[in-house]
Records
---
Amino acid sequence: MAGHFRPLYTMAIFANMALAAFYVYYMEDLEAANAAGMAKYILVILGLESVILAFYLFGQKKGATRLPAMAMPEGKTEKSVTSRIVTRTVTVIGSIMSLVLLRDLFFPGFILDFIPRDDIYLEWTNAFVHSPPPGSQEMEEQGLESVLFVGDKFASHFMALNMLLCMAYKFLTAFGISYGSDGSGTVKCKMIWKIQCFGDLFILFFMRLFSAAAVSASLDLRWHLMLIGYESFILGLYAWF
């Protein structure tokens, strides 16, 4: 009744719509491979959940129950961010990750020259197989075969989209939720930070499993591990303490 879940559910509806649009975009390829059945069920489930969340959001009176206003801590106003340290951490690390993920989603195979070893990253993740850059050696050698690897492209895009949605929740707590006159912004953010901390730890564990294989391909994942590890530490610290 205090509205703590409203930012979370609003972002969930946006995430569901993004996932639904993704499946619709690939529906023709899925139907060509006779794999559209499960995708259609997922679309129904995403739509049903979104309708229920929207009914909750728009059917409940906003601010029906409010906590009493409190004295502001030093340097805080009701429009302030809930945690400056978390905001800075998410801004720096999230921006770097989002840049790579946006490239993987919208421009797969495009080399970002200012990122060290980015060509090795694309080669190791097989981006050149399903999305060889125009005019490249890969395009000459594998350009005609790239359409056969649409499943690999689907999996790559799906991973990038889900990672971007995880980042969207973090940016929501960094910029979309203010401290509030009653300090309720911290309550809202902590609910998201706890889950995002576990999410970062899962990503950290996953990348650690493949770090040795990446080294064999001359791709050093130590910086990636350190960045995600630091972010998970900050999120966990401010979520529980």
---
Amino acid sequence: MEAIFAPIDIIKKIQGLNKNCVIILGNEPVVSNHIKTDIKTYSDLNNIEYKSIRFDSSNKLDQIRPLFENTSLFSNQTNFNISIASGRILEETKKFLVKVISENNDDLFSIHFESFTKELIKSAWFTKIKESSIQLEAKEPSTQEIQEAINARANFYNLSLDKESLSLLSNLSLGNLLAAENEIIKLSLLGIKTDIDVKKLISHISNGSKFDSFMLLDYCMSGQIKKTAEALSYFEEEGIEPLILNGMFSWVFTAISKLKFSTDRSVTNSKLIELRIFGTTQELVRNSLNRLSSKQVEASLNKIKEIDLICKGMRIGDPWLEINRFVFGISRLFNNKTA
């Protein structure tokens, strides 16, 4: 199944294939919300009643059947948006869904399987529904797909990111499409449409009226503990994604690590640019190479990876607590070395 990160005209597509159902597999929020918004927009524009229905294995057929009645006085057609927390629903419900989709060709259906298994996809009732459907994935893009996904989302907002800025944004978001999407939306609201290069991206990404994430990096890695605390507090109050802040440190420490453990110890401008280190950040990297030991660099990278997993819900922990501990630790470390 091909990954499509910004599909459009979904209803027109299924109608062109003489189908009436869209199956959504997965619960990645950017793509799943995009698909549902595209379908609802079509319904609104064409005066089709739009009904959201959510159920699971605890719902019996007599509870579900009335939900599929058209109650609109203005439309004879209904678009049923069905969310199923898991593929495990009662057998009678499965039979009902197959029947209602196959017999109501004029109505439209979207079924969102938020969690799915190989067994579900191979099951007889799913196979039957698939005959009337197109199938779309809504899952976190892989490492190989993240730049393609970010580019698709940028194009959807009429933004043009060059190759370098795409690479940087994918690094800063640590492969999390929702974090990248938030930054793309901010850029679109700023009115920047075309030719967004690395310098423009760095100038505007996560930019606030008082602090931006590059200022936090500068305060932290120059040992300005008080300013570091003020910036962190501001970002938390403003609801900035901790994943993006962690991505900023991942970007810088990955470059530091590559230079620190390289057999060629020379640090030229061209090397730094190859590692996508620009502007004043170049000086931070140079200073860090002199002041941090190999063990400290390695420990920092391990902590950044741990915070990444916590931010993505793959490890238990409080993202803001952990990012505060890490950033303060680095700031104190540099403060001691400059004292």
